[in-house]
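Consider a typical record:
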Amino acid sequence: MTGTAALLEQLSPHVPDELIDGLWARRGGRGRRPAFCASQLFRVMLLALLTPAHSFNLLLELLPEHRAWRRFARLRHRHRLPDAKMLHQFRDALHLSALRQINHHLLKPLIDQVSGFSKTLALIDSTDLPASTRDKKKRAAAIPPGSPRSADAALKADTRAILSVTKSTPCGCGCGNIQEPSCWHRWSPG
């Protein structure tokens, strides 16, 4: 179940804090020392995925009440928490190459374990796929009840489209594409 202390305790050791702090190391210079390190901000961002609070504002509102969430994010003080602006700035600083390094670090033990198997292992990397947001979704045209539907409208209502294409991304373990990308496949019941 999302947001439970048990789930967060199981996942916490797998977050590579040293790597994250190294990737977003603050350059020496003048100014105030940052209140939170990169791994703490990264963990707070993970909480937006691992808990029912899916927005930074809601997460930051609920964070003081949930000790397990603060423990996962390694935030020691109940009231000394990052604000939404810090999280948005950190998210803007996340570059795809750094996220790929973290992904590679997390997958390396898994790939090492199965390297002796005779079967092929495929891992999906969806970092460059478009997000499913409101502006990307199709809206069905409203047909008033009782009006006759045309044959095209009835066909469209019964037709289901399945997308079976993924963008090809470079594979970091020396494997190549084993299947040509396919196009839209249309399936209609009946």
About this structure: Confidence is low (pLDDT under 50) at residues 157-166, 182-188. The beta strands are 160-162, 185-187. The first strand starts at residue 160 and ends at 162. The helical segments are 5-11, 17-23, 38-50, 56-62, 67-72, 84-93, 96-114, 151-158.
